Structures are given as C-alpha cells and as structure tokens.
Amino acid sequence: MILTVTPNPSLDRTYELPGLTRGTVLRATTDRVDPGGKGINVSRAVAAAGHRTVAVAPLGGPEGALLTRLLGEHGIEAAGVPIVASTRINVTLVEPDGTLTKVNAVGPQLTGAEAEALLEAVRIRSAGTDWIACCGSLPRGLPPQWYAELVARSHRAGVRIALDTSGAALTAALRERPDVIKPNAEELAEAVGRPLATVGDAVKAAEELRERGARAVLASLGADGQLLVDGTGTYFGTARVQSVRSNVGAGDASLAGFLAAGGSGPAALAAAVAHGAAAVQLPGSVMPTPADLDLSAVTTTPDIPLDRPLKEPAP
C-alpha cells in the first residue's frame, strides 16, 4: 500500500484548443477536470495499476468536496484534513502540437493547527504502509522544514519515504535522509546550483544530492530519459514514444511506477520509464493503466552516456 501526502492539492481543469490566441474568445474542443496535485497524481497512477492507495491532503470548500468525490471515483481513499480556505483550481491549455500553457493558483494558507493536523493524519494512516510519497510544493503557512519533519517522523515509525519537491523544502529535507527523491532536470540543477548540459552533469548532480543525504535519486530528464543513482550503482532508462499529447503528471506517474515496482534497482527504473512514457501519450493528467504500458519499448542500462547533450538543458 502506498500512502501519498499532497500539502497543496488542486482541481486540474484541462482545455484542448484548436489554437491559442491572446485577447480573443477561445472555444475548447474538449475539456476535463481531474483531481490534482503531485501526490494525488501518484495515488491515481497507483490505483490505476490496481494497488491500494490512500491520499492525505488538506481539503476545503466546495472544491475540496469535489476533489474528495473525484478521488473516490478513481478508487482512491481520501484522508482529507479539513481546512478553512478553499482548495485551489489549476488550468491547463493544450494546443494541437502538444504545447501546454499552465496557470497554477497559489492555493490556500494553512494555519499552524491545520499543518499539525496534516502530520497527525499521516501518522494515523501510515500503519501497514509500504511507502509514503510526499509530493509537491508547500502551501502558504507551512515552513520549508515541514517536509523534513514529516520524513523524520515517518522514519521513526519505520516507514520508507519518497520525496518529490524542490527548493528550500528539498534542501531542508535532505538532512533527514529520504529514501528516494525525484527531481526533474531543472530541480536537480537548482539543488546543486549549477546548469546541467549533459547526462554526465545530471549524474554528478544526483551523486552530490546522495552525499547530502538522499539515499537514492530518481531523476526525470524529460525527453532524454531517467536516471537512477542509488547505493547499488547508476542506471539510465529511455523509452520510445510515438507522440506527446500532454506531459502533465508524467513525472508523478513515473514515481508511482517506481514505487509500485519495489522502489529500487533497474527493474523499478524500467517501470518508472514505462509509466512516464505512457502518461505523456494520454490527454490532460490522465494516469496510465497496465494496458497503456509498453515495457518492450523501454531500455535500461548501467552504461551511462555521460557525454550525451541533454535535449532540454537545465539552466
């Protein structure tokens, strides 16, 4: 069972447009609303794979009530922590060539009591959990050390932690030695304070984060693939993708695949790559089911192409 923690969840509204022209009235060809937030996306992918998952999140207002209902429709048990403010709504505009324009709301501000209630909800629901996945930005009212406190408490309870966040929250949490962190290339560059131009640069950055406390680093490099750097070695995974429809939630799907496959080693990396590749070929933030996965299109290797330039260098 995988428990997810999403401190700043959302309702994700996606519009597919024939084109995006500023200052005009646009009519969508399709639209959808999905439960959103990085941890909730992980729960959706875990549930789509047929595994049990519980989603812990602060939920408020009619938006929070709708989010709870949508989670139930996805087969996810919602462990909502009531808050006074309303859950945020994010909007994604998708053009025919796959270009995305995202508008993310800032989200509610949590009180000190609500922040502590969130930690307590994780403690109560973590019994029998294989992994806790803590994902996304921290809402207003939660200090950067909040994730570090969550990692420390969870480790004292004997539960493994996967952390997908960035900036000061990631830096603060490293000292508590999260079992897995999952940065993308931009977050990896930010964490080490230098640009990444090659796969080798990404490997060095991941190794540095391990030296600073992370037990394993699963790094998403976009179209270039994914890296896994842990105590057993370094592995590189890629997949053939026919066409990209939407990359919203693809990294979250990757983390779900990785954890559901055990959370370590090249087999888990292959599952992560397969989930991410499947997700980018689906609309909006739809999470892949087992029928969408194509492991035959995935390649993993310990022979890292260190000199390969990144298609999307991280500044």
Automatic annotation (TrEMBL):
EC annotation from Swiss-Prot or TrEMBL: 2.7.1.56
Gene: pfkB
Gene Ontology MF, one: 1-phosphofructokinase activity
Carbohydrate kinase PfkB domain ranges (all copies): 13-290
Taxonomy, superkingdom: Bacteria
Family affiliation: Belongs to the carbohydrate kinase PfkB family.
Xref: Pfam families: PfkB
Keyword ATP-binding: yes
Native source organism of the sequence: Streptomyces yanii
UniProt-listed InterPro entries: 1-PFruKinase (IPR022463), PfkB_dom (IPR011611), Ribokinase-like (IPR029056), Tagatose/fructose_Pkinase (IPR017583)
SUPFAM superfamilies membership: Ribokinase-like (SSF53613)
Keyword line: ATP-binding, Kinase, Nucleotide-binding, Transferase
Name of the protein this chain belongs to: 1-phosphofructokinase
